[in-house]
Specification:
The chain is an alpha/beta fold. Helix content is 31%, strand content 22%. The strands form 4 sheets. Strands 1, 2, 3, 4, 5, 6, 7, 8 and 9 form a 9-stranded mixed sheet that branches. A 4-stranded antiparallel sheet has the order 15-11-14-17. β8 (270-272) and β9 (275-285) form a beta hairpin. The structure holds S-adenosylmethionine. The site of S-adenosylmethionine has 23 residues, from α1 and α4.
């Protein structure tokens, strides 16, 4: 059983401890930081051993990346997930890795040309930044501070203003620019006071319709402050973990929808003082924000549950026909919902530019007469499509 170390960290120094630990981990493999993960072996062939052995991930979010996408990897380390994603997105896609530790960036950048040679195209770049502040380009700030170093309080305040200007004029990652944000075992390392803004930043940089796929360590119980202040446990991806529910709730609070657990390890990676720490991979979508219009569309929840509640608080019972706005209708037609619904289009299409606002705060049923039109009074012959092969008539 692990005995807690007596050394404690001042809660304001967590980031420095993390940077120091991963600077060392970039130079030499740190076994204690490794959580075994099965990556797709075909993608590892093009990746140098130095990168593979300094793998400090706990899952594989690259499995959910698709061809031609623009991918952002938060806390990219030596670059393994970026180099895998580079092969999946192909030459039409692009991968950006962000990390705050120079030594990690050095290893990743040194190996990028080797991967390029192996796969035949260059579509990966690594940028220096803090993932809770994805607008601030730390290398650009470094360069500007060399020209005007901080020497006193006045120059410190000027540097603060400069950072704000750089965020606006030259953002490290622009808003609405990324198809999929991935991250592997990093979010837990962000200090508690910055966790909320971290999730907001992920949301900001994603395009509407984009998604986050994040593997991280979560705990099954709240982690005590004493454990959080243990430098070894904090920087070792343990005591900064959010609880399983807190992790999903953080995405929800930032405005994501369709949040789901893609993978949850049954066995904990580690157990400390009775608290289990395990890897999960979750997916969350951006794009439910926007205006709601009435186009007489309806959806039917197929089951198997008796009822479901969506992220806008629409409660739908299995088998019943619900009125939805055009935005919800189109969201449900895509992942992660489409397999759970039947879609009912109105017989007469109402163009979007003629549609009236729809009150999305309520949940209401859609009478079939609304779908067909009040004057609909057709009588038809039997539909051949009902019979196998359409040959029974
Ligand atoms: C556990 S390692 C994971 C590295 C990589 N994702 C992998 O799968 O091997 C954590 C990485 O995140 C970086 N990191 C930690 N906190 C960060 C922050 N706030 N901003 C940017 N990078 C951070 C560290 O420098 C380190 O490279």
């Amino acid at each position: 059983m692990l005995k807690l170390r007596i050394t404690m960290i001042d809660s304001t120094r967590k980031e420095t401890i993390v940077r120091q630990r991963y600077a060392a981990g970039a130079k030499e493999r740190a076994d204690k930081l490794c959580c075994p993960v099965d990556y797709e072996s075909e993608y590892l062939k093009a990746i140098p051993q130095e990168v593979i052995e300094r793998d400090y991930g706990c899952g594989d979010p690259s499995r959910d990346v698709r061809e031609a996408e623009t991918v952002l990897d938060l806390g990219s380390g030596t670059g393994k997930i970026c180099f895998i994603a580079a092969q999946i997105v192909g030459p039409k896609g692009k991968v950006i890795g962000v990390d705050m530790t120079d030594e990690m960036l050095d290893v990743a950048r040194r190996n990028a040309p080797i991967v390029t040679e192996g796969i035949g195209y260059a579509n990966v770049e690594f940028r220096k930044g803090r993932i809770q502040d994805l607008a601030l380009d730390l290398e650009l700030l470094d360069r500007r501070l060399k020209e005007s170093p901080i020497t006193d309080a006045a120059s410190f305040l000027a540097a603060d203003e400069l950072a704000e200007e750089l965020r606006v004029k030259h953002p490290l990652i622009a808003s609405d620019s990324i198809d999929v944000v991935v991250s592997n075992c990093v979010l837990n390392l962000v200090e508690p006071k910055s966790k909320r803004i971290l999730f907001q930043e992920i949301f900001r940089v994603l395009k509407k319709g984009g998604r986050a796929v994040v593997s991280d360590i979560v705990s099954d119980e709240e982690v005590s402050e004493e454990m959080q202040n243990d430098p070894e446990l904090w920087s070792g991806c343990i005591s900064g973990a959010l609880t399983e529910e807190g992790f999903l709730a953080a995405f929800e609070s930032a405005g994501f929808y369709g949040i789901q657990i893609l993978k949850r390890d049954v066995d904990p990676w580690r157990t400390v003082q009775g608290i289990e720490f395990r890897s999960v991979t979750i997916e969350a979508f951006k794009g439910k924000q926007g205006e709601c219009f009435e186009r007489n569309q309806a959806v039917i929840y197929r089951g198997p549950f008796k009822e479901v509640l969506d992220d806008d608080n629409h409660r739908m019972e299995r088998g019943r026909r619900y009125a939805v706005c055009d935005k919800t209708y189109n969201l449900y037609k895509k992942a992660p919902y489409r397999e759970f619904f039947e879609f009912v289009d109105p017989i007469v299409d109402l163009p979007l530019n003629e549609a009236k606002p729809f009150d999305c705060s309520r949940t209401s049923l859609r009478h079939p007469k609304e779908t067909k039109g009040r004057d609909y009074n057709a009588t038809t012959e039997a539909n051949n499509k009902c019979c196998d092969g359409g040959s029974c008539a």
